[in-house]
Amino acid sequence: MSNRFLAWVRTKIFRTQIGREIGDELQFHLEMRTAEYERTGMAHGAAHRKALRRFGDLPTVTSECRSVYHLPALPPRGTTFIDGLRQDIRYATRTLVKQPGFTLLAVLTLGLGIGANAAIFSVVRSTLLHPLPFQGGNRLVYLWREKPTGFITFPPTAEMIQSWREHATSFDAIATYRQEEFIILDDGEPETLTAAAVSADLIPLLGVQPFLGRAFVASDTIPGQDHVVLLSEGYWRRRFAGDPNVMGRTILLGEEPYTVLGVLPSRIDAFFGGSRREIWIPRAEARGTVARLRPGVSTVDAQAELERIHAQQGLDPSRVEGWPPRILRPSDRVASDLQTGLWVLFGAVGFVVLVACANVANMILAKGVARGQELAIRSAVGAAKWRVVRQLVVESLLLTTLGAAVAVALASGSLQLITTHLPDGLVQLGDSRLDLVVLCATFTLAAVTGVLFGLVPAGQLRSLDLTRVLNHGRRSGSAGPKRSFLRQSLVAAEVAMAMVLFVGAGLLVHSLIRLQRVDPGFDPTNLYSFEISLHDGRYEGFDKQELFFNELLSRIRQLPNVEAAATGAVARWYAPMETTVVPYGQADADIQSTMMVNVVSPGYFATVGATVLQGREFVTDDVRGEASSVVVNEAFARAYWPGEEAVGKRFRLANRFAYTVIGVARDVRVSGIQADPNQLQVYFPYQQFGDLSFQTVVVRAIGHRDDVIPLLKGQVWSVDPSLPVRDLAVVTRLLAGTIARPRFNALLLSGFAFLTLALAAIGVYGVTSLTLQQHRHELGVRVALGARHADVFRLMLGSGMRPIAAGAVAGVALSIGLARFTQSLLYEVQPTDPLTYGIALASLSTAGFVACYLPARRATQVDPVEALRHA
Amino acid sequence: MATSRMDLLQGTLALLILKALESGPQHGYGVARTIEQSTDDVLRVEEGSLYPALHRMKERGWITSTWGLSENKRKAKYYELTDLGRAQLSHEAAEWERYAQAVAQMIGTT
Lengths: 871, 110
Hints:
The complex is a heterodimer of chains A (871) and B (110).
Chain A: H1 2-16, H2 18-39, H3 44-55, H4 58-68, H5 81-98, H6 100-129, E1 140-146, E2 153-154, H7 158-167, E3 171-186, E4 189-198, H8 202-205, E5 212-213, E6 228-232, H9 233-240, E7 250-253, E8 256-264, E9 279-282, E10 288-293, H10 299-312, E11 325-328, H11 336-380, H12 385-420, H13 436-463, H14 466-478, H15 481-517, E12 527-533, H16 542-557, E13 562-567, E14 577-583, E15 592-600, H17 604-608, E16 612-615, E17 629-633, H18 634-640, E18 650-653, E19 657-665, E20 680-685, E21 694-701, H19 708-719, E22 726-730, H20 731-738, H21 740-774, H22 776-784, H23 789-822, H24 834-860, H25 864-870
Parallel strand pairs in A: 4-9, 6-8, 15-20, 17-19
Antiparallel strand pairs in A: 1-2, 1-10, 1-11, 3-4, 3-10, 5-8, 6-9, 7-8, 12-21, 12-22, 13-21, 14-15, 14-18, 16-19, 17-20, 18-19
Chain B: E1 6-7, H1 12-21, E2 26-27, H2 28-38, E3 43-44, H3 47-60, E4 63-69, E5 75-81, H4 83-107
Helix pairs in contact in B: 1-2, 1-4
């Protein structure tokens, strides 16, 4: 180490001292020799040249002398590799600064392409690839049970979890979790605090530790000792101002005192998909199940083992209690339409990058004209070929690094924009950020692009014939038919990709328009809804709950700007019920059906504006306990009594409870715009339902006035000042929320489509302008021979539009080929929708035409005399 | 014979340099001129060989160098024989003599 260091120091000293002395010595020799020749009567210049010739190769001799002292031979200019690189960078910077238009356009183009890519890649990475950003998160799996026919998953039963804990060997640990809610009075307004109720081993399973205080231990879940709580970092900062001595303090949860054990770091929030749990409490009984696979065990192995264990329990798999286990990876739990949407966006943004790269490649190719000459001269004056190639690569790398810098700025900006305009089910995106991996990927992409671009003109160098380039000047050095074909192909490819994105965006926008026009089956305007939860000791039993709602509804109805009020779900997601329907007088088929259950109060249908087509809706006189009456929807009536009058029919649910149909209501998309309208729906009167602990209140206001909101809150609190009013909003907004994902996808894809279109148009413009430049001479001849403006114009436009037409045709074919990927994102629009394709073609042709038109106009102004003189 | 110039055989260059320095310190150009003049310009010294040879010989300790002023008041590097160099000169001169005799015997010119 130190020897090598000394040698290095010595080399340094040699370079500066002995190295200089060698130079001086040889210089002295040359001077003496020059003087000698001058004495024979030669002029100084000639004598000096002769002395140089006589001496031989000065750099070689210098190097040879240096090698005596083990000094590295220096290249001719006395530079090292790093010096050379620095020189290259300086030279490249000068080249780029000398052509600000090209540089700006190329950097912006690359920045937009790579930036969009980095932003979407960040989203895909955090949402689909790493939904659980924990240590060893790729070995975390969720354990569920699934209906044998698929599609519906429920949490496992307590018995299943028990048997897995006893017998399964595929996992390091199996932990459980659920959600619990507490009411707290915050600033006087009652608020709901969401708690994660978890088994003691869940937090260690995630590899997370409290950064203050201690974690849960198994004994914390024992009833009587379980009044302890861990705070989330966010809640700790908000409520306790980040007090480091918070441990041991007591907080009231539902009137019961809990002791604070510690504070969890905010990264654990990701476990619930970024929807924060304010506090964590230890509870043994929960059915959300997460497990860590043992190293080397695949999900397939684990699935097989769970199925084996399940089979030994001897349960009926067709019954909901006996549904077989199902292992889901974290990414499986991301809604499938969200996944498809993101992958489509990811694919789309790949096209944007390709177009951006094609564009820059095209610009570089176009500049190859001037470049060819410069390179030929440089290599003629002795620059080694690899130096010239390196110079080109350095120049492109500089360009792409600038592009990448712009990209990073754009990406972090647009990520901010994306995450603040998140639709509801996309909460995971809240955690999307430009992380190291994304940054590396971005720069790698930029570097690869840079090297490839650098090699384009370098490849030309090989085929460049110096004398030809120098003798024939600009024209012949450039536009061989091969190169112009390459450029035109690139433009055609850009147009094709722009076409694909335009068609994709068009299809999504088209289905969004359709979705927005969907009649939900009820009237959402001026309809307000909020949720009341009576999970509270004071409301135990149906009587108290009914009393509360009767009182609340009557107080709300007294408000001057309220027309009607009722309870019953609307525009909310809720779990479908799985049960058997057996109509009287029909064979006992025992087939389970999935249906939406809606418990409603009298006046519900009138309030929300849903029509009862036959029979009647519930009235207050439908006394509870008596012959249970229900309202069903048209789909239900069609399914069980096709072609018959359904009112008055009777059926049994789950082979136990008997019901009489008193009305048939219109099919309503209760759970959202995209809900299946043919979903079976049953409405139960709330008087006959045993439990009203969780209800949605719907209120029809008069006129469009949000000032009804504080009045509604006031009425709730006049009945019970400690009840939180949850999610109070106008239903139109809730409905819009249910199509937030399609809107998000359509918006983003449209953005990409326009971006690509702009890039493609720039590409077309660039190539057409270049064609004009190269054929100035030819056009001049034509004009001189009597061609009219119109002919020239047509010629230019024709040559410009040809690659556009080819690209458009290829784009249509490609779009049809890719249609199946967007299929599942479309609503009542065919992937081959001719209207969408027509609009895309028209927009693209228009943009292409404009891009060709400008250079073509300029072509008509070619002055034949000038064109011929300067050719 | 005076009209054609002989390129120096590798190996004899060191001998000629040592010989040229025998009469006193010289700079590189002086060494070259001495060899050229004392052989009536028959032997032509390649600078490409001369300077690396000078530096190699210095590394071997046959000669030393100092910076001095030249006849035209320029800073120049002067080379001087060491004792080792003197010994090397007599050794190489003897070698050369034996070699030249062997060659002469073989082609029968003496």
